[in-house]
Amino acid sequence: MGWRTQMLWSDGNMLIKKVLLIGSPRMALDSLTTDANISHEVYPPLGLMYLSAMIKRELVEIDVVIYDLHLESIKAAYAGQSVDWSKMVTSRIDEFQPDLVGLSTMFGASFSIAEKIGQEIRQKYPQMVIVNGGVHITGIIKTRDKEKLNSFSDFTCLNEAESHFVGLIRYLNLQQDFLKGVYVHNRVLLRDAAHLLPGIETVEDVDTLPMPDFGAVDLHNSYKYGILSGAQTIPRDKPLATLLTVRGCIARCTFCSVVNFNGAGVRMHSSQRVLEEIDVLYNEHGIRHIDFVDDDFTHSKQRTLEITQGLIARKYDLTWSIGNGIRLGSLTDELLQKMAESGCTYFSLGIESGDPEILKKIRKPLTLPMLRKGIELLQRHPQIYYRANFITGFPEETMEQLQRTFDVAATMQADWCLFSMCKPLPDTEMYNDLLENNYEGVGNNSTANDYSFQTTMGMLANEEEGKHIFDLTYYYNLKINFRDNPNLRGRNVERAVKDFERVTKISQNHAFAWHCLDLGYRKLNRLQDAEYARRNVHKIIENDLFWLKKFEELEVSISN
Fold first, then answer.
1. CATH number of the domain bearing residue 444
2. Nearest residue to 155 via CA among 117, 126, 185, 114
3. Is residue 478 part of a domain?
4. Using CA atoms, how far apart are residues 68 and 24, in angstroms rounded to an integer?
5. Can you give the pTM of this predicted structure?
6. How many helices (H) and strands (E) does the chain have?
7. Quick one: DSSP state of residue 41?
8. Could you report the per-residue pLDDT of 469-513, keeping only the tens digit for each?
9. Distance of alpha carbon 112 from alpha carbon 137, whole angstroms
10. 450, 484, 518 — which closes off a domain?
11. For residue 95, pLDDT beyond 60
């Protein structure tokens, strides 16, 4: 059998000997730049690293390689090379000659990219076994979009795929006669319909899983090409990595895919296991900042204290953050103090709405009295940067309810407020409710791919209403995060300056960010930098009336 797999088992040889795992890019191709000062996020493909480790432990005869197409694209762009995802993937396939390709799609933004790559692979290598997986893919299996997978995918490994993926390889290699946690697109490869079992396999004791295969990717050097959440709180030259220590979340928010993907409840690595992984990253890979991508890191106060105490005892030159977010109700003075002492620089909080009825409707485990108490708690620990996350345009949200969200965001005095338009993810409760009520623009009624449903006055938004909500959200983003930024007003000017510098690295023509840098630099007596920022403001508004209008709307004078 050659590497261009023949779908035959009759000779008794293994069908699958080599596996190539591809992490789909999470950015638009036209956003890539040769300017290394422009920052992209460079999250390592942690899910694929778990798969690689599992294959190496359970299937020692299989050769497995990870190709982080996201990072490799950024590397190529910085080097001034043309970035063609199809050519990059086919080149790697020709070099490694795998029998099976796994495509990971964690987010909706990557789906169209993974689809294009998958179709290219199917066309050029028609006998290649192609397997899809990831959070977004698991969600769309129950929607019309699964038909797009049928055009190029043989299988989809659902939910947490460590056991499912290993089982699939064993099935293809005639080492077992059942499949579980796998959706079969290509029924030719299913030897008997009875082999396909319902349900999924969930690893209850996650400490029994192997550590992620940290050595399978260019982990140590990824910081040279981008950032993680909380990047504004650490030096740019810190090698960084991510860890997943909790699977699931105690909350059941209707817009969130965590319960659908990870199941109800929370499964945690022990504090000992977490510290062991940190030891490996620090001592063997030179990592100096870790972002925990958990959805409920502080679920157990005792475990969190044990982790922080272990870090304090190690005296590592290490900082850490929780970019995905933690529940405000899980925090205490003791916890925040230990987090700060152990190197925590940043975390985000999912507030979502300032309206009590909306919070109740989306099943957010938060009330306004809890929020007020939490704000007082956070203000006692200013050494940690915190970002408050809000969502605008919930289904049936009125303008009065939306305004309460902006009012709460303004009173929180967070280091930053992140406003996102409501985009119900496939197969979440919110998405399925919209589908059941036969809303236009949802599921089988939709030609759209972004699952975006901004609403006002109890009605699904048309294009004009959606634009109105977007414009209003952007107005309050500029007002709260820029014009009225509490750090810029004196609380922590250096922190504010780092934020605005980060914005200008992402969006070089953001006149408001340059204006705030002008003010911040002057307060720090960095007069030469201030003058440079001021010139940028004038240069931008001379060529872009959009920004001139924003300055007028917010009643902000432009310095001469």
1. 3.20.20.70
2. 185
3. yes
4. 7
5. 0.90
6. 20, 18
7. B
8. 999 999 999 999 999 999 999 999 999 999 999 999 888 999 999
9. 11
10. 484
11. yes
